[in-house]
Amino acid sequence: MPASDHRPAAVLNGSEAFPHRHLTGIAGLQPHEIMFLLDEAEQWVERNRDRAKSDHRLDGITQINAFFENSTRTLLSFEIAGKRLGADVVNMHAAQSSVKKGETLIDTAMTLNAMRADVIVIRHGSSGAVQLIADKVNCPVLNAGDGWHEHPTQALLDALTIRRRRGDIAGQRIVICGDVLHSRVARSNMLALTALAAEVRVVAPSTLMPAAVDRMAVTPFTDFDAALEGADVVMMLRLQNERMNGAFIPSTREYHLRYGLTPERLQHARPDALVMHPGPMNRGVEISSEVADDTARSAITEQVEMGVAVRMACLDVLTRRARGVEGWA
Amino acid sequence: MSLRFTDARLVCPESGERNGDLVVAGDEIAATTSAEAEGETIDLGGAILAPGIVDLGAFAIDKAAFAFGGIVRVGLMPDQSPVLDDPGIVQRAAMMGKPDLWIHPIAAATQALAGRDLSEMATMQQAGARAVSTGRTWIEDSGVMRKVLGYARDCGLTVIAHAEDGRLTRGAVATEGETATRLGLSAAPALAEPLAIARDIALTEETGARLHFRQVTTAAGFELVRQAKRRGVAVTCGVTPAHLFLSDIAMSDFRTFAHLSPPLRSEEDRQAALAALADGTIDVLSSGHDPRGPEAKRLPFADSAPGAAGADTLLALGLGLVRDEHLTLDRLFALLARNPAEVLGLDTGLLRPGQPADLIVIDPDRPWRIDADRMAAQAGNTPFDGLPVQGRVLKRFKGGVEH
User: Fold this and answer.
1) Residues of A with CB under 8 A from a CB of B
2) ipTM for the whole complex
3) How far apart are the first and last CA of chain A?
4) Interval B79-90: pLDDT, tens
5) pTM score, two decimals?
6) Are the beta carbons of B57 and B344 closer than 8 angstroms?
7) CB distance B58 to B84 below 8 Å
8) Is residue A47 part of an annotated ligand binding site?
């Protein structure tokens, strides 16, 4: 049975469906646990389209969004998700925090812990920083992106988008193209999509391809056109200019020539292939506006919508034990 | 004052292993037979009596850890604060171990370890320096490295080098591979090591210098050293237990105690290290003692400092290699005592009459568990936390005096 056909939520009760205290990454999650989170998110998609979007299950819960790295859309998405569930949401920006004064990450974690947060959402520029905090605090910790490591809610929202648009994840040929080396989005997506039995191809110039990536059950390509043959989904990554130091690619113009997704290039994929991008996009670099704005094929705005639903589901599930939800003791 | 050790299991890198007695007169070994001696007799009841360990390339003076680990002499790396690049500082460092420990300063090969200007090697040698080193880093400029090797040869000093191409390893905290990819850590190819080794061996061959690579950790690196030795190049190399026992998988869960320099390698490279140990390519087993406090280790992996405490665990892990039949006991003490002494130009490390009575008594079977919270070292950052080991130092003598 393909992993995506698995519906354990119907047969597993309470915490058995998701036994983890934190969500630090996709690594360590079983396929049925990923599916459980997607199923949970599904209900919020429709709910968020209603006029009355509010729910009160997180009333009295304090959610701290501790963002040590700049972010607009992810922070906003987590903030909206928490508020729609009734949580008291507090945002902590690194620029305003004592981190700038030399406080260590663990000291910051202990401070947040002492303030009795009920759930902490962390974004940090160093791989592993979220795990470090999760080991030190008493409440659930949600990874909103750590270094080059993982961005699990992005992978979940991408998987939800694919499942809704394609009907299934198993068996889909999914091409992930761009700066795979520096991308936490790529890592989490490789883990999630292969766990759900998709065929995943990663494409990048060899200067931006991580070593031994083939051991993560994906197939690496340097030729974008070859990788696109028969693709059901094309997932573009942002070219992270701030991490390039000018040495990974000769120029953005040349990058676009080899790895830019244009209407012509997209013809190598299936006619109904879905185009995705985690944003923000560098139009004319990794993706042309014609492709990005083609509503028949582009799911980019839908990904943003799924993001809120996925984050609502994760906040709900991770706080169930503390809230004494039946079956989650 | 004389000492007579009886019923000892004598282990000597030169004369091998045998049961017998050893006599110390003053601060020297007087005899390795059951000769008559005045003074105290110590019945070892079959325990091992071996040369005191000469730890080549420690980064901190950590007397408690050295005492626990049976280390009597320490080759101190120049990466101190201030850097060992001045005769006065070298002289002071040499005094710091007294009375219970020999500190043999390894001077900076270039001023401030900056890799640009030659240091005053001869003057520092007069002040007590026993070798010169590039420290934690690689000298990028091949012209400077050539001058370092040539000038050190003139002074009769061995150059102790760090072997990683710094341009390839810049910003990296791990070795490229599946683990680094999964963890999203900045990584450098293992090739950085053989690249550096190949250059430095070529320069050593040309200058006729003596070169010791403090740590070699890759299959390709060992092969280059192996071939150079066959050609008669005066090159030696060392390793620490971490690279013999652990592969990069130990970094999983972002365990900063496994953040080392050079970083942990693949399982294939670890197996190559064991093979190089067995075939004699590796000359020195050292602790790489580099204790780091929580302020340097309780950080995200990439932000943490590389290094681990190693003095406490060096002997027990070395005995583990003997138990696993990678080494014989006398060869272990060649790696721990005789060979590092030779790199430093010291006439010690053997159970031979006339040598300094730097000795350790070991119960090789006593079990204990490495516990990061209960180590003698200044900081308990060991990648071996929780590992059960066997072998404890019972007594330690420097110059015939127990400390």
Assistant:
1) 27, 104-106, 124, 126-129, 131-132, 146-150, 184, 187, 210-213, 215-216
2) 0.86
3) 31
4) 999 999 999 999
5) 0.91
6) no
7) no
8) no
